[in-house]
C-alpha cells in the first residue's frame, strides 16, 4: 500500500503498537512557567551550556528571547544566540548555526519560536552527530506557535534547490518542552491562528493516517473540540493567556509524541503542504488552510470504510448532528474546517502565492511519488480547485 493510498486500510483499531519517544523527558506547561521549568530541565538533562536558536523577528521585535537569556545567565548556562533561522529552515542558516554552536562550546540547544527554529535545531544536532560520530545532543523546545514541531523526531528543512528535505531519528525529538502561554503574546495573529489550523490538520489527518493507535485518534477528537472553540476565542481575545494555554495543550493533543516500529507517512494535506510550502514560500499554517478542507472532501470519495468512520465521527465532537451517512458527515467535516478558516480570516488560495497552474502535475507527482497512481488525477484536480 502506498503511503498516501487511501483506497485500502492498514487497520489500527484492534492491533498495533504504541510507545513514547525515547528522548522526551518532560513537558512543563502553564502561564509563566519558564523561570521554573528551564532550570529544572537543565538539571534533569545535565546541560552545561546552550545555544539559543530562534528567528530574527522574535529576537529583534520582542522580549521573548531576552527572557530566556536571563534565565540561562542566572544559571551560567548561556552560550549565545543564533537568530538567522527563517521560514522553512534553509540549509544555509543551519550550516552557519552549526559553526556558531561549535564556537560556543555548547552541549545543547534551546529553540525558541515556531516550527522553523525547532526543526532547524533538530537538523543542526543531526548534522553535528553525523560529523562527530558522538551521541545526538539535546534540545529544549520553547514553542511560541501551535505548529507542534516539538513533538516529532523528524525535521524538515530546505535544501539548496529550494526543495523540502527531511532527516529523522528518534534521538532528534526534543528532550524537553516548555509550554508557557505568556511567551506567545507577541506572536503575530496570523501566525498564531494559522499554526492553530496546522494543529487542526494534525488532528484530522491522524484519523486516517496508517499506524496511528486508537487512543491517539481519540485525543485528536479532543484536540479538535478544543481548537474549534478556542481559536475563534483567541482571535476575539488575543491577550487572554488562559485561552492561549488551552490552545497549546490542544496542539500537544493533536500530535501526541510517539515512536513507530514502521514509518507512518503524513496524510495527504501535510504531504501537499510540504511540496507547496518551501517551493512557493507559503507558510505551513497557511498551506493547511488551503489544503485540509479539500483533502477531507476527497476522503469521502476515496478513503476505506474504517477511515471514513473515524473522520465522520469527528463532527460529534464539534457538536454537529450526524446525517446518518458516512460520506455526507465527512463532507460536513470538510465544510466545518472551511468555515473555521473563514472565521479566523485565513482564507487563502494558490493564486495569492503565485503558484503556476502548469506546475500542478509536477506537484501532484512529487506528493504521491508517482504520476501513474490511483490518486494522481484526483490530486491534480484538487490542486486546480485551490485557485
UniProtKB/TrEMBL annotation:
InterPro entries registered for this protein in UniProt: ADH_Fe/GldA, ADH_Fe_C, ADH_Fe_CS, Alcohol_dehydrogenase_Fe
Gene3D superfamilies (UniProt xref): 3.40.50.1970, Dehydroquinate synthase-like - alpha domain
Ribonucleoprotein in keyword set: no
One term under GO cellular component: mitochondrion
GO molecular function, one term: metal ion binding
Keyword annotations of the record: Oxidoreductase
Alcohol dehydrogenase iron-type/glycerol dehydrogenase GldA domain residues: 27-180
Signal peptide boundaries: none
Any one Pfam family match given in the protein's UniProt record, by short name: ADH_Fe_C
Domain Fe-containing alcohol dehydrogenase-like C-terminal: 194-369
Name of the protein in question: Uncharacterized protein
UniProt source species: Phanerochaete carnosa (strain HHB-10118-sp) (White-rot fungus)
Amino acid at each position: 500500500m502506498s503511503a498516501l493510498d487511501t483506497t485500502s486500510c492498514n487497520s489500527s483499531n484492534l492491533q498495533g503498537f504504541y510507545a513514547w519517544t525515547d528522548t522526551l523527558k518532560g513537558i512543563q506547561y502553564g502561564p509563566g512557567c519558564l523561570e521554573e521549568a528551564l532550570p529544572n530541565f537543565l538539571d534533569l538533562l545535565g546541560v552545561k551550556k546552550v545555544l539559543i536558536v530562534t528567528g530574527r523577528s522574535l529576537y529583534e521585535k520582542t522580549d521573548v528571547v531576552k527572557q530566556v537569556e536571563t534565565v540561562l545567565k542566572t544559571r551560567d548556562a548561556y552560550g549565545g544566540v543564533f537568530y538567522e533561522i527563517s521560514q522553512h529552515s534553509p540549509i544555509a542558516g543551519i550550516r552557519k548555526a552549526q559553526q556558531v554552536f561549535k564556537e560556543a562550546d555548547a552541549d545543547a540547544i534551546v529553540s525558541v519560536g515556531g516550527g522553523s527554529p525547532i526543526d532547524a535545531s533538530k537538523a543542526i544536532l543531526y548534522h553535528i552527530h553525523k560529523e562527530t560520530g558522538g551521541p545526538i545532543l539535546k534540545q529544549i523546545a520553547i514553542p511560541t506557535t501551535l505548529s507542534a514541531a516539538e513533538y516529532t523526531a523528524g525535521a524538515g528543512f530546505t535544501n539548496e534547490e529550494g526543495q523540502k528535505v527531511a532527516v529523522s531519528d528518534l534521538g532528534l525529538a526534543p528532550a524537553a518542552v516548555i509550554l508557557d502561554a505568556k511567551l506567545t503574546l507577541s506572536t503575530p495573529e496570523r501566525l498564531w491562528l494559522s499554526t492553530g489550523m496546522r494543529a487542526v490538520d494534525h488532528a484530522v489527518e491522524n484519523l486516517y493516517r496508517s499506524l496511528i493507535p486508537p487512543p491517539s485518534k481519540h485525543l485528536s477528537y479532543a484536540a479538535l473540540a478544543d481548537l474549534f472553540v478556542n481559536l475563534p476565542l483567541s482571535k476575539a481575545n488575543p491577550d487572554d493567556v488562559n485561552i492561549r494555554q488551552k490552545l497549546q495543550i490542544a496542539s500537544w493533543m493533536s500530535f501526541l509524541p510517539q515512536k513507530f516500529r514502521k514509518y507512518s507517512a503524513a496524510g495527504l494535506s501535510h504531504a501537499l503542504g510540504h511540496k507547496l510550502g518551501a517551493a512557493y514560500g507559503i507558510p505551513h499554517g497557511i498551506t493547511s488552510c488551503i489544503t485540509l478542507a479539500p483533502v477531507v472532501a476527497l476522503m469521502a470519495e476515496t478513503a476505506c470504510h474504517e477511515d471514513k468512520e473515524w473522520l465522520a465521527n469527528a463532527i460529534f465532537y464539534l457538536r454537529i448532528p450526524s446525517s446518518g451517512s458516512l460520506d455526507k458527515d465527512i463532507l460536513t467535516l470538510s465544510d466545518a474546517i472551511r468555515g473555521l478558516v473563514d472565521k479566523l480570516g485565513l482564507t487563502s488560495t494558490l493564486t495569492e502565492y503565485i503558484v503556476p497552474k502548469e506546475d500542478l502535475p509536477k506537484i501532484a507527482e512529487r506528493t504521491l511519488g508517482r504520476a501513474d497512481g490511483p490518486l494522481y488525477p484526483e490530486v491534480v484536480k484538487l490542486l486546480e480547485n485551490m485557485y
